[in-house]
Design a protein that fits this description.
Thrombin, subunit H, 6-stranded antiparallel beta barrel, 13 strands, 2 domains, alpha+beta, single chain, about 260 residues, 6-stranded antiparallel barrel, binds 4-(aminomethyl)benzoic acid, 4 helices, disordered N terminus
Length: about 260
């Protein structure tokens, strides 16, 4: 029995290795062109993602976020871990950093006790706003309760850098990236960090989230399935973008929303 399972485990590892090799070689072939938008995306010119908000801290653009209720935003814990709540603002109903949109103060920042600053594990936070956002100015996004299937193409939006060297993008950017298996992602990050069950990865040649996109939504099947969390560089074919897996932190979000109803 032991031998059989050991044999299977080795077969599984071999399969993973082959998947990884295939992924990397495809990437080398397709990766002729990098360095575009969000990275590799396009400008959002209509207000079609009206659950999107941006966070501003002490007057400076900080991160992205998503309205899940008229007075609640889901973002990344690493965006709001060290901030003074009174200096935090959220801007809804805008797709350009130059437009104010609807501005709200934050009443409470809720960070789960499982969040680990060092490993970026459990990178989720809920912001309870001081006042509601009018229904005419937003649509709440539903949470993706179940894990997203590998290969699903997901939308990521944000005002982050359009390549590794540039500034934040004034106009909101969007990109579509396919979800990778956690096992393949873990192999790719083997020398860097552990990819936990609270994380999911997505990447395509030349397409990625980047610094400044953190906290913003990854939308799969029309629902909030991920939160931009971290990565090594941006659109580096060796390192996929890492996102908080909403399905694995679903009960934290739901119980927090219930508590602050
Ligand atoms: C960041 O620094 C960051 N490529 C966010 C996402 C990614 C890399 C860096 C993913 O906020």
């Amino acid at each position: 029995m032991y031998l059989v399972s050991k044999h299977n485990a080795m077969g599984f590892q071999l399969q993973l290795l082959l998947q990884l090799m295939l992924y990397l070689s495809l990437d080398q072939l397709l990766c002729a062109e990098i360095d575009e938008r969000i990275v590799g995306g396009t400008s959002v010119t209509e207000k079609k993602y009206d659950y999107f908000v941006r966070l501003r801290y002490q007057g400076v653009f900080l991160c992205g976020g998503s309205l899940v209720r008229n007075n609640a935003v889901v973002t990344a814990a690493h965006c709001v871990n060290d901030v003074r709540v009174k200096d935090l603002r959220i801007h809804a109903d805008t797709i350009n950093l130059k437009d104010k949109g609807i501005v709200r103060r934050v009443k409470t920042v809720v960070i789960p006790s499982l969040y680990n600053e060092r490993t970026t594990n459990y990178d989720v936070a809920v912001l309870i706003l001081a006042a509601t956002v009018p229904n005419a100015n937003f649509t709440a996004i539903q949470l993706h309760k179940t894990p997203v299937a590998v290969g699903t193409k997901c939308l990521v939006i944000g005002h982050g850098m359009t390549n590794d060297k540039e500034q934040d993008s004034t106009q909101l950017q969007e990109v579509w990236v396919p979800v990778l298996s956690r096992a393949v992602c873990q192999l790719m990050y083997l020398r860097v960090t552990r990819i936990t069950r609270y994380m999911m990865c997505a990447a395509d040649a030349g397409k990625d989230s980047c610094s400044g996109d953190s906290g913003g939504p990854m939308v799969c099947n029309g629902k909030l399935a991920g939160i931009v969390s971290f990565g090594v560089e941006c659109a580096d074919p060796r390192y996929p973008g890492v996102y908080t897996d909403i399905s694995s932190v679903y009960s934290f979000i739901e119980s927090t929303l219930e508590k602050y109803k």
